[in-house]
Amino acid sequence: MSDEHQETTSEGPLPVASIDDPHMREAVGNPRRAENSIALFLVLGILGVGVFGAAYVQNWKPWTLGVSLGLGLFFLGFGLSAWGKYLMPQGPFSEARHALHSARAEREAISAALVERTGVVIRRRGMLGGLLATGFGIFGIVAIFPGLRSLGPLPGLTLTKTNWRRGSLLVDANGRAIHRDTLDPGGIVTVFPAGYEDNTQSQAVDQTVLIRVQFTDLVTEKGRATWAPEGYVAYSKLCTHAGCPVGLYERQLRLLVCPCHQSMFNIDDGAVPEFGPAPRPLPQLPLYIDALGFLRAQAPYDQPVGPGYWERTTT
Amino acid sequence: MSLAAPRTKRQAKSARGSYGRVGQVIDELDDRLGIAKGGRVFLDKIFPDHWSFLLGEIALYSFIVLIATGVFLTLYYVPSQTEVIYHGAYAPLRGLKVSEAYASTVNLSLFVRAGLLMRQMHHWAADVFLGAIVIHMARIFFTGAFRKPRELNWTIGLTLLTLSLANGFIGYSLPDDLISGTGLRIMFSIVLSIPFVGTYIAFWLFGGNYPGTVIIPRLFIIHVLILPAIIAALIGAHLFLLVRQKHTQFPGKGRTADNVVGSPMYPTFMAKTTGYMFMVTAVLTVLGGIAQINPIWQFGQYQPAKISYAVQPDWYMGWLDGALRIMPSWEFTAWGHTIPFVVLLPAVVFPGLIFTICYAWPAIERRFTGDNDIHHLLDRPRDRPKRTAAGAAMIALMLTLLGASATDVLANFFQVSLNEVLWTFRILVFIVPIVVGVFTWRICLEIQGGGADIGKRKRALIVTRSATGEYRTVETAPQPDDQHEELEPIEVPVKIDMTESDGDTAGEPGVRTVSR
Amino acid sequence: MPSPAQAAERAVGELDDRVGIAKGGRKVLDHIFPDHWSFMLGELAMYSFIVLVATGIFLTLYYVPSGSKLIYHGVYRPLDGQQMTDSYASTMHISFGVRAGLLVRQMHHWAADVFIGSIIVHMLRIFFTSAYRRPRDTNWVIGTSMLLLAIFNGYLGYSMPDDLMSGSGVRIGYSIMESIPFVGSYLVFFIFGGPYPRESVFIPRFFIVHVLIIPLLIIGLLGAHLMLVMRQKHTQWPGKHRTYRNVVGHPLWPNFAAKSAGLMLMVAGVLGLMGAFFQIDPIWQFGPYAASHASDAAQPDWYMLWLEGALRLMPNWEISGLGHTFVAVVFIPAVLMPALTFLGMYLLPAVERRLVPGQRPLQLLIPPRRRPVHTAVGVGAVTFYGLLTVAGTDDVLANFFHISLPDVVMTLQIAVVVLPFVAGTVAWLLCHDLERTTVPRVTRQPAVVVPSPRGGYELKVEEPTACLEDPEPIPVPASLVPSPVKDPPGSRANGQGDLDGEFAGAGDVDGDGRARHRSAERRDQAQER
Question: How large is the ipTM?
Answer without folding.
Answer: 0.84
